[in-house]
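Obj.: predict assembly geometry.
Materials: sequence records (below).
Method: joint structure prediction, all chains together.
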Amino acid sequence: MNAPVEQVAALLRDAAASGRPCPPVRDRIADADIATAYAIQKRNVEIATASGGRIVGRKIGLTSPAVQKQLGVDQPDFGTLLAAMAIPDGAEIPAGMVLQPRVEAEIAFVLDRDVTETGLTVADIVRSIAFALPAIEVVGSRIADWDIGILDTIADNASAGAFVLGGSPRPLRDLDLRCCGMRLDHRGEPVSTGAGAACLGNPLNAVLWLAETMARQGEGLRAGDVVLSGALGPMVAATPGEVYEARISGLGSVRAVFGEARA
Amino acid sequence: MTGIDRAALLERARLDRQAVPQFDPGIDIDEAYRVQTRLVEHRLAGGDRVIGMKMGFTSRAKMAQMGVSDMIWGRLTRGMQVDDGDRLDASRFIHPRAEPEIAFLLHKPLAGRVTAIEALNAVAAVAPAIEIIDSRFRSFRFSLTDVVADNCSSAAYVIGPWASPSIDLSNLGMIFSVDGRPCHCASSAALLGHPVRSLVAAARLVESHGALGGELAAGSVVLAGAATAAVALAPGQDISLEVERLGMVSFSVGGGA
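Observations (raw structure tokens):
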């Protein structure tokens, strides 16, 4: 049963607004077309910006071979970050803000140049990055029980929910982006660990993919954009009232604090 | 079956490269360690010598999976060592797997209840390391006491360049690759939050079990445990581990038809 873009977009919007996840939308997307799924994502971003939301960057998803295999794809996907999704380090993430929240630790890059051309190299990406920050992405799914395929997650803004940026900007020259260790701790014990190479071999490879993909769509990336480059280790379900701390070697630390569930 | 029989059976399984079924239940953990002692004595009688220990079940997840609350340990012998960069003959083993680890080299003895600071103070150097495990039990199916008796599945190990122990070991990136392609990534934090905790446990266990003369002697090597899932080995593979700030260790797998 195919449905127009707006109809599927509305299902996802309603799920977010009501706090009640909806069934998977993949069977409603004509010809299982990835471009249509992105059009659904774009539709909801436009509605958010029309009511005052501001685009502050992009997130890259599906950057681990294991997750790609799980979803039967061979490339990453991307979602759009809005200012309302940004939570300061250690500030409380209100209960219910993100549906079915999970946390993952990653490296955020902040650009200081526009990247709009195609045919990019890693050198172009390095030149466009002002600094890196440690980040926790709080992913969430508007689809019930995270029963997602590639079309579901793309339409659902790549399962973006909220993100927390650490406050220690580091230039790339100080970092070993491929080999840097990542630990995500809950109550002092690691619940997820990884390394830079877990993100497409090197997080810069993910940024290159994003920049090239956005440029081909005629949008590009802009100076000031935040790019969440992709998880460095497995995602972990977040519990209300709990605190998760990510540390990435060379980049310092960042905390996601979840508010208590409302009675 | 007596403990002597069990040790002989496991040694025979190793030499014949023929896995054996799980033991019937009935021995406790202390008896399992006694079987391990006898098993390794077979090799010492042939001129081998113990150079240290390996730690197992060094993640909460693994302990929960096996229903235990403590780590387990096995003996490393000189004969199990493969030089960094060398070829490992897979035909010597039953169904070998490799795991990424961190190795400690001690410059003074360590035993009993020690603090993390005391443990680190006894460390001369740390290195990236790969352990080759090869359960003598069929399909790697074993109980806690089975695996302890079987020297914790240990079969061989490769140690990379030794680095200064002053490096902060709490969050070093680890990239475990097959044929140059990363297959598992982790942080050294996967080892109980900090690899030194494994060394602290080794000191405690070696004394409480009265093994290895009751202490980790100066010069001992301790493998701190696996940071990721194991990789099944096949002839022709190149296996490598890169650890942030510690460097690289590798070996190739030979012995194919």
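Conclusions so far: Helices of chain A lie at 5-18, 34-50, 65-71, 122-128, 150-155, 203-216.
To do: check interface contacts against the pulldown list.
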